[in-house]
Prior knowledge:
The structure holds two protein chains of two kinds. Chain A has strands at 4-7, 10-14, 19-25, 29-37, 43-49, 55-58, 61-65, 71-76, 85-93, 103-104, 108-113. By secondary structure, chain A is mainly beta. In chain A, a hairpin with a 5-residue loop joins strand 4 (29-37) and strand 5. Helices cover 0% and strands 56% of the residues of chain A. Chain B is mainly β. In chain B, the strands form two sheets. In chain B, strands 2, 4, 5, 6, 9, 10 and 11 form a seven-stranded mixed β-sheet that branches. Chain B has a four-stranded antiparallel β-sheet with strand order 1-3-8-7, with no helix packed on it. Chain B has strands at residues 4-7, 10-13, 19-25, 31-37, 43-51, 54-57, 64-66, 76-78, 87-94, 104-105, 109-113. Chains A and B meet through strand 4, strand 5, strand 9 and strand 10 of A and strand 5, strand 9 and strand 10 of B.
Amino acid sequence: xxxxxxxxxxxxxxxxxxxxxxxxxxxxxxxxxxxxxxxxxxxxxxxxxxxxxxxxxxxxxxxxxxxxxxxxxxxxxxxxxxxxxxxxxxxxxxxxxxxxxxxxxxxxxxxxxx
Amino acid sequence: xxxxxxxxxxxxxxxxxxxxxxxxxxxxxxxxxxxxxxxxxxxxxxxxxxxxxxxxxxxxxxxxxxxxxxxxxxxxxxxxxxxxxxxxxxxxxxxxxxxxxxxxxxxxxxxxxx
Lengths: 114, 114
């Protein structure tokens, strides 16, 4: 079945450093969504990418979807303590029978030292 | 105030007992989902429902059951057949089952089986 791998599993940074998490799918995706889960909280939707090679920005966050629609990345510039949490990617298998079924990556846990 | 509610936040049960987790949404969403989250793992789909009176198994449905008698409600029963039920359970909903709809998550129920 479809697998979505996310690396790294953990990332510790000093405040002000940049951060990147990578997401790789074993199959071609229709879309990729990114979620953030604060410690003790629940996942909250950040963004969705659907086009090959798409790049979207939200303030200090930059999201990319690969040309082959099998990988994605989230880059945070100049991290702040408010960026702490777990970042998940999630995608839907292109051409699959699983209508609307998202497969989540394992997540990257980001800690930011002030 | 629209959203998804899950109750209770913490739940303790003895081994061998069935337990039902509540999930209610007032977002008028057609689709609802149940996920399980374990430390170091992503969210794994247990069951999902695209419309009232219909639901499908996700990736880890064994030992779980659901019902969708009302649009607003999607309760999950963790049966005694589930070998390792201790986990954080998250309910989510989306406007429809279409793959490009963002999912809204409830606060979660942390189940501990003693």
